[in-house]
Amino acid sequence: MASLSLCRRVSACEVTLAVLLVVAALVNVTLIALMATWKTRTDPPSPQDSRYLIGVGRADCTGPPADIPLMGYANPEQTAAGIHTRLYSRAFIIDDGRRRVVFVTADVGMISQRLRLEVLRALQVKYGDLYRQENLVLSGTHTHCGPAGYFQYTLFMVTSKGFMKASIKPLVDGIVKSIDIAHRNMKPGRIYRSRGELDHSSLNRSPHSYLNNPKDERDRYQWNTDKQVVVLKFTDLDGDGIGMLSWFAVHAVSMNYTNRMVSSDNMGYASYLMEQDKNRGQLPGQGSFVAGFSSSNLGDVSPNTRGPRCMNTGLPCDYLNSSCPTKMCKAFGPGEDMFDSTRIIGHDVYRKAKELYAVAVEEVVGSLQAAHQWVNMTDVTVQINDTHTVSTCKPALGHSFAAGTTDGGGDLNFTQGAVEGDPFWDRIRDALLGEPSNQTQECHHPKPILFSTGEMNWPLPWHPQIVDVQIITIGSVAVVAVPGEMTTMSGRRLREAVKQELESEGAFKDTEVVLAGLSNIYTHYITTYEEYQVQRYEGASTIYGPHTLSAYLQKYRGLARAIAQDKVSELPLGPPPPFFEKNLFNLLPAPPVDRAPENSSFGDVLQQVYPIYRQGEVVSVTFVAGNPRNSGDIRDKTFVTVEMYDNRTDSWEIVHTDASWETRFHWLKGSNQQSNATVEWHIPFVAPCGSYRIKHLGHYKQRVGWQTLVSPYEGTSDVFRVTGSTY
Hints:
Structural class: alpha+beta
Largest sheet: 9 strands, mixed
Radius of gyration: 29 Å
Number of strands: 38
Mean pLDDT: 92
Number of helices: 14
Helix content: 25-40%
Low-confidence stretches: 1-23, 26-48
Strand content: 25-35%
Shape: globular
């Protein structure tokens, strides 16, 4: 009996041990599974995975808002004198585990070659070969209200008072910082795409050129501008939105050539609205959600939807049938003034993008690719049929270039549509700059050449020869980086050509091709061959001649084919562009010392606020000010704050800065080195009732002995009340 009892006890122990071993094994299996799951969620996704590593970033890139010409209307007298809205760079980084691409849209007129080269140099120092010319796209929104002076070619330096480090440095630093932020914030996420159409927000400003395209081609399209809005929605793995990219073709010229404030214009306002919507309670430029609104094939597309009218009669005008002088024929936007027009167009673009963002469910999947080449655009041969070839030309601008457009015309007696030169201006050109060669004139025919920039090289070349062509693909989405302003039909032909090549090998299906305009380098306009014959402003500004588009189609087809065949590594790099160190000039002198009126100090109030305002009214206050250029690097700072008193904390809370749509900072240079700053606050109808004050912050330069000293100052208005009724 004793031995039987012992045997039973041993058996029970064995069973217990066996159970424990099974439990331990289950625990190990569970831990291994959990570790594998954790590893899957943190490792870079594979090319077959629908998830990417995604990073978004935004950074202030606003330059000096005083004295420097604004880039876009080519008017040296249109110099900066304040801030309407700040300028931002917005970066989007996508990584599929094998490759990485970066798309940046910046609130600038266009990306210059010098700007791109300096950004690449700065990224090389920080990241080595991670961000390179082939996987980085820099695109400009085409605002005409950002500081100029960031070009290295003579034509642009002449119209911008030179090359200015004070202009290019905040752009370089802002773009690099936006990439830094996106780089730090990378995390697993997903991308969705959506597209729709936006009408009543754009108008073709050269319809007669468009009508010169083949009728059967025109009949394929409902409109003479592209109405499509394409949206990419970026989310984390929980489905929470982290960013958005949108493309729509319209010129950012709602703010016209009379404006003198730095402004991001209609596309910047669309970004502002989307980011304010997603980053509730944050000041402009703050918050994690980043919304980029990028330019597209906007070459002949105006936001001034009321169309051109003669300034002296108010009647509609065009260059074919109207007796209105060219410089009197101006287009007007949908609003009562340029601010209202900017608001309307920007809000329309934002509203459509927000709608598409909300319904974006088609997921973008697949690997990333990036293809890039440098091309000598002055010497491209194109095979147009079995027996004939054509070539591009040395750059040149035609007479109609000087006529401007209905969005901003020239001041002299040039006209759009000129296919013959003017003997008066030709003689002046020949005497000052030299006569164009017969070869160049023949190559550009029927363009009558005003400036043969490809034959002008003092003190530096007037126009670039080496141009970037680039395509990046994100799954089924192809982003074509266009080095200029493509017209509507040019863009349609390019999109179609790239789509055909990508889908020819079967690797791409249902491809969405978007054009990112004003990218990497600026080469003016790109019209179709047929539009070029009419020689409107856009044709006269197609600098490489009538076969420019054909050359680009050939080059971009080559990039798309290499991507489709997975032969990008076999593409020749092409001749690298120059980086000029010498002969860059700056015609803008340093700001002088500042002086305050007698018995006054910087920051003193010259015109005080009223005690009470209603919602919807405008508060205005004027201060003794210094030159804003003396404030140096103004990124992430402000010249203006609107502050509301908080009774709960007995403190003042900043509710608006000079980045806010509701504020306007006007700087007025006076005589005797004195200047004033007027701050306006356009009180929103939804502004809370309460006590407010306005502050102006700045710097002034003074001479102390043999040295100059820059000192900060600030001024504060009286406290005023905002009420919902009169009193």
